[in-house]
Amino acid sequence: MAQKDAQDQDGTETSRTASHGDETLFTKDVERQSDDGGEPDETSEKTAPEDPNIVNWGKTDPENPMNWPSSKKIGVLAVVAFVTMLSPLASTMSASATPLIMSNFGSTNQTLGPFVTSVYILGYAFGPLAWAPLSELYGRLPIYNICNILFLIFSIACSVAPNLGALIAFRFFAGIAASCPITISSGTVADLYPVEKRGKAMASMILGPLFGPAIGPVVGGYLSEAKGWRWTFWLITILAGAACIISFIFNRETYPYVLLQRKTASLQKETGNSELRSALDTGRTPRQLFKASIVRPLRMLYLSPIVFLMSLVMAAVYGYLYLLLTTYPRVFGTQYNFSEKSIALVYLGVGVGSLLGLVFTGAISDRLLNHLAKRYNNGTPKPEYRLPTMLVGSILVPVGLFLYGWSAEERVHWIVPVIGTAILGGAMMIIFMPGLTYLIDAYTVYAASVSAAATVFRSLIGALLPLAGNAMYDALGVGWGNSLLGFIAVACIPVPLLFWIYGERLRNSRRLSKVQF
């Protein structure tokens, strides 16, 4: 009787065989990864009798985020995309105001100047280790809201910082809070969309991390010159306050684990059957789950060659972005005698390139995935079908670096190095979108954790590489300095090709299938 009542409730099935979200796609990969990283026996699953006390989603259950109306999905996605764009926008808004900040606090330290910007990114390296497991334990929504409030508080603190040390400290904690949407937004996309529709949705999430840093210095440059450098942080504070309000009103919980737990609790109360339990329940306590989850991103980096190498490629590109953004004042100020306002406009090169890369990748990502699935795998998509697009971006990165470096070194017309940065910006988008989507498709169960792993890696590189920018240009010059980065980028070109050929074999290998993430 309890089973029948449960089945009648909004399409929910108390059946172990009901499908959950996109688990019907990439079935082998997802079913192999239980919440504790174990490896279920697929044969025994097929022959075992159904447990009538297991509560799972029905195919048309309206409470399953996969079944939400498009308008509701787009609404949630828009809120998360806004918060996700605000985070990296704040990372560089003070970059063009760095000379004013250093002058105001009486510092001439050439390392501390870029560190005001990069310490924020350093916070990105620590925050995901907490936000990803917490979101997989308590849900996405409360973590979004808590981090929005923390970001607002530390943005206010930056606005009134009494000295350089306090500003750097507040920026670090603001970065920790701001890493939340960067980390778990990909999990939100995985909650809402099946794999064949995920590429376009991911575009809205990745636009912020790559387009925001290019727009921030333009806004910050003009605002700091007109109103003073503190107003760059007051503007961030105003936007953070708006993000808090919008998220509290319009954002919704999307994490299936939490939603199914709520559904189970409701059915237990309605049916009086205390034996009902969620199909996603691992049977472990919250403390046990958190202890396992908090180290999962680092374990994935250490134990999975796919996660490590893909994160390495994205980290290198991310580091290049922040190195360029923090050294534009030097390059264009020294080589072209640009004023601070003119330097602020140079940042638009990366922004325009990123936008073009977004349009290109968004237009072909899902289309190419479906085409390759029909051609090579009877219509069933594989994560590796994302990688041909990424290969295009990997080739364009060194092209952009060589063009930027040597045209600036030889003082060719300023538009040429700006075109080089635009090529680099487009290449970064073409790498990031399919790269991160590939990881999410390959590790759907751990979408937030694999995103955290990639975020931690790239944030460390993004925070530390800019600190070496001035010293590198002092030693090698702009031409050979960027050529060095270009040669490293050339070495990364084979990575997408490597996983196109061997990725599925690696994911299905006996050694990796037994790894407990």
UniProtKB/TrEMBL annotation:
Major facilitator superfamily (MFS) profile domain residues: 76-507
Region (Disordered) location: 1-65
Location(s), subcellular: Membrane
Membrane-related topology note: Multi-pass membrane protein
UniProt keyword annotations, A-Z: Membrane, Transmembrane, Transmembrane helix
Family according to the record: Belongs to the major facilitator superfamily.
Comp. bias intervals (Basic and acidic residues): 19-35
GO cellular component, one term: membrane
Protein name: Cycloheximide resistance protein
Membrane-spanning intervals of the chain: 74-91, 111-131, 143-162, 168-190, 202-223, 229-250, 300-323, 343-364, 385-406, 412-433, 445-468, 480-502
Organism (species): Karstenula rhodostoma CBS 690.94
Pfam families in UniProt: MFS_1
GO MF term set: transmembrane transporter activity
InterPro entries given in the database record: MFS (IPR011701), MFS_dom (IPR020846), MFS_trans_sf (IPR036259)
PANTHER family: MAJOR FACILITATOR SUPERFAMILY (PTHR23502), MULTIDRUG TRANSPORTER, PUTATIVE (AFU_ORTHOLOGUE AFUA_3G01120)-RELATED (PTHR23502:SF68)
